[in-house]
Description:
Layout: H1 2-9, H2 11-32, H3 39-59, H4 63-74, H5 80-107, H6 116-156, H7 169-189, H8 192-204, H9 206-211, H10 219-238
Helix pairs in contact: 2-3, 2-10, 4-5, 5-6, 6-7, 6-8, 8-10
Amino acid sequence: MDAFIRFTNQTQGRDRLFRATQYTCMLLRYLLEPKADKEEAVMKLKKLESSVSTGRKWFRLGNVVHAVQMIQQSSHATDLVPRICLILASLNRVIYFICDTILFVRSVGLASGINKEKWRMWAARHYYYSLLLSLVRDLYEISLQMEQVAHDRAKKEKSPSQDPLVYSVADEETEWLQSFLLLLFQSLKKHPPLLLDTVKNFCDILNPLDQLGIYKSNPGIIGLGGLVSSIAGIITVAYPQMKLKTR
């Protein structure tokens, strides 16, 4: 109970819970819409989703400052590739939060002359760039982990391999694929924060891909991806050791 109280006392914790609720509503609404006798339930889910989305906007008002702090922290990374990716991702996140704040100001009626569609597309574009750069960083980290696992495996081999058998091209390709997947699995298994961050970014990028028309999805896929991403975010907030650290 104490851990739950500490979690909900954090702005990021409340935002993750609201986000999980929002995307759960989207997923359930998508699943119930085809059923003729579920119109009332669908309307209630739609209203709840809208209310939760509005509530989340209040939590995100201070995220511009947090994103600027992330730029400063990222500049201290010792590895060049993560440093560049994180700095550029944080810069795009700053622009995204500025666009998001402008859209919020318009939605509450403080400024009516704002072109909602234009700012919404700008927000989606910079959110997409931020996630894409974060995924590049994840893939780079995965490659380093796989290299380390392969190196450790080679050191453990005590005897030379047996005389090679004759394989067909198809057998060699299958063996290579199996070896690659096993190496990937072992690398992510040894580094859960990297797995969580990769899954989170991959699921998050589905939404801007759909908004920008790069890869169209349905609300069910976006809702499922958002829910999985929110659960990963909840884990990293509740257990800070599960958050991917900057080297």
